[in-house]
Amino acid sequence: TGTTALPTTDDLRTRARASLRHVGASIPEGGDFRARSPITGEDLFGLGAATAADAEDAVAAAREAFLTWRTTPAPRRGELVRRLGELLRDHQSDLADLITVEAGKIRSEALGEAQEMIDICDFAVGLSRQLYGRTIASERPGHRLAETWHPLGVVGVISAFNFPAAVWSWNTAVALVCGDTVVWKPSELTPLISLACAALLARAARDTGAPRDVHRLLLGDSAVGERLVDDPRVALVSATGSTRMGREVGPRVAARFGRSLLELGGNNAAVVAPSADLDLAVQSIVFAAAGTAGQRCTTLRRLLVHRDIAGTLVSRLTAAYTKLPIGDPFDENTLVGPLISAAALDGMRDALARVQAQGGEILAGGDRRLADAAPRAAYVEPVLVRVEEQTDVVRRETFAPILYVLTYETLEEAITLHNDVPQGLSSSIFTRDQREAEYFLSAEGSDCGIANVNIGTSGAEIGGAFGGEKETGGGRESGSDAWRAYMRPATNTINYSGRLALAQNVSFL
Ligand code: NAD
To answer: Is 202:65 a contact under the CB 8 Å cutoff?
Structure first.
């Protein structure tokens, strides 16, 4: 069940160089900021990171570009995003290669991430003609009351390693059609794919005559991100990552009355009811829990199974878990690639040790793989753990493929357990009983930003708004009307009556 030889670090360097060349990006080599690959766990290139002066320059340039961009008609702004979408289509395979090299995603998921970028561009192009405001019934004769949406300013995008390109595209495609300009601080773990995205957008700007500085990239660690957080010229900070990060970023942006859009950790659960289609449930659960090596914000981390079917479901999951092919993500037979780092493996082992001390029982998986072939990489078997209750470890997000299995008797009990975690991102129920499904989706059901029926917690489409409640941060990105976070509404009262009529019948003079 393991795949064969891993590529060498030199192979990975060659691939990365080729993809970057194809998209027209150069590698700013020579610094001591490292690009690395989780496939071997080794460094690929030393890069130059952004200095304080670079950050200052980027924000100033993006602010300057905003002054032109905000008055460019939105459908024309859409032309930039349409061109970006075309370039992303042309280079889908190169982008997927870089995502695999840097984030360790298997081929089909890396192509899927690049597809998501293409999809959001299509969506944003349509949106560029649909930034609708409303006309509101005025209480006064001869008056019109309206709402107008204006561009907001510079958007600072801070992104996580696990969707190193898609999260940027959700923010950037929408921000650009809304008339904003963008400064991007990607994860320090994924600089190369960021260089590729920035190069394609720069080309799209050249091709369509948009200002060059509608987008700027700043490579570096959290200190570079903090510059965006504290800069009053950055109107919106859209930050994706851990709840720990959001706890630092949210209050700092609020302290300067900036806006933030936070997309933070999840601790997603699925309820499996007695009437569930178990074939469908098993397939969905394994993808949601073990896919992306458990490193999606929407990864399934808790399974709440009705006690009448727990035995059957657990034995089917155990069988599926022991067959998962783990190894080189470029190998088309592989389903589970590496964890991002040795630190992630340590975090997983620590959680497993703690949960076992609290009475948890490992049902399948948990062993390290390929330690001889790649001692600095972190390949691990996705693990299934039976727990009796939601202890502190179960209620925390461990960013690794651990699925905790609990049983329930009544749906009310399942929903109580479901909602009894600090996070509120994604959720699902497997049932053929419509009353149960509707109850789960109702106001007294799942408290998450995403609630699904008969499909897993992960793998959202871009057309819906994406995000979650509680410690997940409350932000919404991507489709639906998430665009409103990137604009500022103005309420307009227009008096065409020729007389002054004060609201609420106030009389004066
Ligand atoms: P992370 O929090 O370590 O880093 C995310 C980004 O924040 C990086 O670019 C980092 O440099 C930056 N950062 C960290 N501290 C900062 C600070 N004080 N000021 C400014 N920037 C700072 O997260 P990660 O390990 O890259 O990603 C995994 C986490 O992201 C998981 O918790 C996952 O659930 C979450 N995530 C959430 C979503 C979502 O949409 N809700 C999507 C993807 C990932």
So the answer is: no
Mutate to test the pocket of ligand 1, among 157, 242, 471 (most ligand atoms within 8 A of CB): 242
- SS3 for 141-181 is CCEEEEEEEEECCEEEEECCCCCCCHHHHHHHHHHHHCCCE
What's at 237, amino acid-wise? V
Residues with C-beta less than 6 Å from any ligand 1 atom: 158-163, 185, 187-188, 221-222, 225-226, 229, 240-242, 245, 248-249, 263-266, 297, 397, 399, 425, 472
Closest to 173 in 3D by CA, of 122, 99, 138: 122
The C-alpha R_g of the chain, in whole angstroms, comes to 24
Integer Cα distance of 335 and 291 in angstroms? 7
Is pLDDT above 90 for 449?
A: yes
Instruction: Tell me the mean pLDDT in the region 118-147.
Output: 97
Residue-wise pLDDT tens digits, 467-503: 999 999 999 999 999 999 999 999 999 999 999 999 9
Contacts of 485 (CB under 8 A, 6+ apart): 236, 238, 259, 261, 475, 476, 477
The whole model's pTM is what? 0.98
- CA of residue 208 to ligand 1 center, whole Å: 33
Residue positions annotated with a catalytic role: 263
Q: pLDDT tens digits for 90-115? A: 999 999 999 999 999 999 999 999 99
